[in-house]
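Troubleshooting log. The previous structure file for this entry was overwritten by mistake, so regenerating from the original sequence record. Sequence copied from the archived sheet and checked twice against the printout by T.R.
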Amino acid sequence: MLRSLQSKHHMTKSPVTLKPETSIFDAIQALLDRSISGATVIDDDGMVVGVISEMDCLKAILAGTYHGEVGGTVGDIMTKEVETIDEGTNVLEVAEKLIAGHRRRFPVVKNGKFVGQFSCRSILRAVIEFAGGPEEGNGS
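Regenerated output below.
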């Protein structure tokens, strides 16, 4: 049953992360290069200090354009209050939190340190694995 699936077995273990001192332009390039909509921001000790999204970057560029100062760092524009999940959280609970919070991803922590990420795509992969993979002939 899906309730028994723990996030630690289905999370992305090496997702894209950024540092607070990363320039906005380098962050945008990282998101574009990897075709992702956001990333977790971690400090040198592996602690989650924020998240940054395409929307955060777009808002910063727009605001900078109006003020004549386009630039800055991830730390300047990231969302600093970040909800994380523990690696033992079950997949169903993560799915409910993603939907309820209108989120696309949650950083996963163990003993306060970043160990991975759980996203909508991670859940969809877990469901397919749980179901035994795609069925033949269903267009997948």
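The chain has one domain: 2-130. Archived copy saved in two places this time.
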